[in-house]
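Take our chain:
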Amino acid sequence: CVLCGRTDDCPEKYGEKSTYVEYNLTVHYYCLLMSSGIWQRGEEGEGIYGFLITDIRKEVNRAAKLKCNICKKKGASIGCVAPKCKRSYHFPCGVQKECIFQFMGDFRSYCWEHKPVQKFSVKGSRESSQCIICLELIEQLPLYSVLKSPCCKNAWFHRECLQYHALSAGVFFFRCSVCNNKDQFQKEMLRMGIHIPEKDASWELEENAYQELLQCYQHCDMERCLCKRGRDYNEPDSKWEIKRCQCCGSRGTHLACSSMKSWEQSWECTECSVFAKSGNYGKQQKRSLATSEKTGGTTCLLEEPSPKCPRVSSGSQHSFLLQSPKIMCQSNVTPCSRLEFPASNRMTMSLSPLKANRSLSLRKKRLSQQRREVSNILKELKLQVKTKTTRLNINTENIWKSALKGFRQRSFSPTNTIEIKFTRYRNRLKRDTSDGSKYRFFKLLMLNIQNSSLFEGSSIKNLTLDSQALKENLYFEAGRMIAVSLVHGGPSLGFFSKTLFDCLVCGPENVKPTLEDVADVGVAQTIKMIKYSNSLSSLQSTVHDCYEFLAAAGCLRPVTTLCDKNMLVNDLLIYHVIKRIISPLESFRQGLKTLGVLEKMQMHPDAFSSIFCHEPERLSAETLCDLFTIHCSSDINKVEGADFWMGYLQDVESGESVVTLEDILLFATGCSSVPPIGFDPEPTVKFLHIRYPVGNKLHNCLELPITKTYEKFKNKMEFTIRNTLKVERE
């Protein structure tokens, strides 16, 4: 090593030793990191770990003039930071002499006389206990090799054991092994010289570590297996195809062994049938209000940037300009009242196109009013959010897993401001704190939840029963994520069925499901056969054929008349859509109580239905005109581009442009649709003497050039927006 002069290759003690042939340098990572006269002035991939080669050579020359106070050799690049202390030493010599090196902040080093020590209580200081990690005896003395947990009274560690654990767990999983405290524990261990690398845990990075979880269960568990080739034989699209239990997935059967038809796509094992049958939803008092959940938390450690890792500041605030009135494309047509046909004509006449259009217009107007109401409610809930930040490190290749890890970390609190860091390109972390990045994260997260095993259905979703997800409390986490997303500026959902939404706000005992709520093809086919039986004999025959299914659902009843089919269908729908998922539903409801979202949903069901059960409103030129406020540095009448902006929006809406209205909104704010809570700050348009448009996502500001002709304005808009979004997508 050019700094310490040793050939030792011990990553646990001195950091990784790397040789760079092109620079003719060999260096220990810790020697480079702790040297007193060098800083990371380069980018992450520049030089060696961000240290420029010229700076390293200067540091080697500086250290060559200093003698180590321990080994008496030249090249001592590390100095004690205590005032008036002149001691210098090599990193390995400092470790040998029990110096303390703090891998945080200014990367300080303390010699053996000035190093920080832990304060132990005098009582019982001579007792012995076990190291929590290696379980060997350890003396409770203030020694360099012994560390005490700051959060647990009787938790002791060997320094070496703790350092190995920190290198393996990384900053996201390193915590007290007794009480699971993270913040206080990490802070103390960093003070006492434990290096905690900012990386994922080693067990998370191991390739194919959880490969066995991807193996499908392929075994027939029926008491009597009819297959001559054995219980493990599986032939798809035949009677010997093995179907797994739709609830637990850990039991299977051949189609022939359970007398199933080939079109039956689902099956429940005996254990899950009993569980589903015995599941009773607790009787609840009918009410419209629910108490909200108050949670608290602390922020992450290692948030502040180090002088060895300089950060670029976020730009100064733009000065406010004279605000002009909003430009709106509103028509002067007033809504017409509903037309009524005579009673005799209502059954024979279809709606005229005029009435259909008016009905659609009224429905859209009502949805817009409801969304404005939701926006005001969510803004009221957002008052709970504090300026204290919680950072979520999100891997774009596995949104759900990294989001779940972030939401479950000890420092996470729904009332903290959320900061997103996306992992890209060889696990580099790119800090992105704008509302656009949060919107993108929440949009990807909601898409993952929509397509997860927690829900079933094509476009309109209901909850389904996933026993593993229930065991891991994922329904609660999904509900909590949706609540946090809405309050923190996430997108509309739009995929909840009306039945699921009513179960959440009114209670499942007050909801009547329909056949459209049944996503399972086999179950839907069985219910249809019962519902459309046209004679008593055919009904009884169908009931006989479905005996096991009806018994498992607890819906067996004597069939004496054809009218009994209605009660039977109703029982089956209630069982399959509601009773079967009572436990997931209750867990999901508890998650939605976060930040008081469920309480507001119960108070304003119609308003919240507009964002839970309906797709977001399609953008129009009128919507964007109403959304963006025009700011200008001079009189509004002198701004030549205002008319160009209006005309361009109309061209985009009519399809006479290569970009879309969604692209314009994305370019300006980072959001492809208007979030239910709205924008903060409000989107603005500024006309400036600049060459090309600029989208300032941090302030939701669209800066547009002032041009002499509309053609130049349009060309510059399309060129900039198209290429900017192309680069961002890549």
In short: The two ends are 40 Å apart (CA to CA).
